[in-house]
Design a protein that fits this description.
This protein is mainly α. Helix content is 63%, strand content 0%. The radius of gyration is 17 Å and the shape is globular. The N and C termini lie far apart (49 Å).
Length: 139
C-alpha cells in the first residue's frame, strides 16, 4: 500500500514538474467542472421531478448518478454521463492518478486536461473506447 501511495505522489509531481499549471489550479479547475455539471444536472432534474431532486440533494453528489429512480428519466442520460465522468476524475484525483490515461496509464497532455478536466483517456485509448462503444454499426 505504501508503494502505491508513493507512486501516486511521484506521478502527480511529475505531471506538475512538466507543466505550467500548478496542482492547486488543476484541482480548482476540476472542482469547478464538477460543480458546473452537478448544477446543470440538478436544474434539469428539478424541471422534470422536483421530489426526486429534493431526495437526491440529501445524498452526497457522487451518489446522484447511481440513483435507481433516474431510469424513469432517460432524457437525463447526457447529464448522468457527465456526472459519472466528473466523479471518475475526482476519484482519480483522490488516488493520485489524475492526468493518467485510465487504460494505459500514459500521461495526458496539459492542453488536454485544460480543455477537458474530466478527460479519462489518451487519444489512442479514446479512439479504441469510442470504437468499442459504438461497435461497427453502419446505417
Amino acid at each position: 500500500m505504501a508503494t502505491f501511495i508513493l507512486a501516486s505522489i511521484f506521478r502527480r509531481l511529475d505531471i506538475m514538474m512538466h507543466s505550467n499549471i500548478t496542482e492547486n489550479e488543476l484541482e480548482q479547475r476540476l472542482q469547478a467542472e464538477a460543480n458546473d455539471h452537478r448544477l446543470h444536472f440538478m436544474r434539469a432534474l428539478q424541471r422534470l421531478d422536483a421530489s426526486l431532486a429534493a431526495q437526491l440533494q440529501r445524498l452526497p453528489p457522487d451518489e446522484w448518478a447511481d440513483a435507481p429512480a433516474l431510469v424513469a428519466w432517460p432524457q437525463l442520460q447526457p447529464q448522468i454521463n457527465n456526472l459519472r465522468r466528473v466523479d471518475a476524475a475526482l476519484c482519480q484525483w483522490q488516488l493520485g492518478l489524475y492526468g493518467l490515461c485510465s487504460d494505459c496509464e500514459a500521461q495526458l497532455m496539459q492542453a488536454q486536461l485544460l480543455a477537458d478536466p474530466c478527460r479519462q483517456r489518451c487519444e489512442r485509448c479514446e479512439a479504441k473506447y469510442q470504437k468499442a462503444q459504438h461497435g461497427s454499426w453502419t446505417l
